[in-house]
Amino acid sequence: MENVMPPRPTPRLLSMRPLLAAALATLLWTGCATTYRSDVPLYQQLGGEETIKTFTGKALSRVAADPVRGRSFKGIKMPFLIDSVANYICKVADGPCVYEGQDMQKSHADLNLGGSEFDTLVQTLREEMDAAGVPNGAKNELLRRLAPSRREMVTH
Ligand code: HEM
User: Fold this and answer.
1) Confidence of residue 34 (pLDDT cuts 50, 70, 90)
2) ipTM at complex level
3) Residue 121 has pLDDT above 60, yes or no
4) Where heme is bound, by residue (predicted)?
């Protein structure tokens, strides 16, 4: 009589099973890490207060050092400003930080900011969040929350 049993997987394929399972787990984990999770406070997904201060400080320092884009920062005490902006961002991200500064309209009113200046800072923040290893989902959620302040700061 003819044998109708399906062929059994080769031992080689069987031995690759743990490898395939590990690859799948890595894929799932990466997927989770890059997606914003509404059940975890955003500031935690951004890496906590320390990381927020790091990427904020680097972004502000880079823009301030630019010969053209940095014009608004002349005479500004950068360590104080960095602390204040980091606390603001931490608070926007539902963190426990206390922000004691003015609202965005008042604090930028005298700077005569253009749209492209705002966009440059946002792009620099994006790059520094990437450098700090902030997952894409958390990064985009923070930028989404900051976006409405553009119309409060930009005057032309
Ligand atoms: C996402 C965009 C921005 C955010 C979240 C932000 C946030 C802040 C915060 C929280 C303060 C501190 C206010 C206070 O302590 O009373 C501040 C002040 C300041 N910001 Fe921004 N800012 C943004 C865009 C910009 C841009 C585009 C520039 C210039 C290129 C700028 C330049 C300044 C300067 C110079 C001050 C100090 C003003 C002063 O003390 O007279 N900011 N910003």
Assistant:
1) confident
2) 0.97
3) yes
4) 108
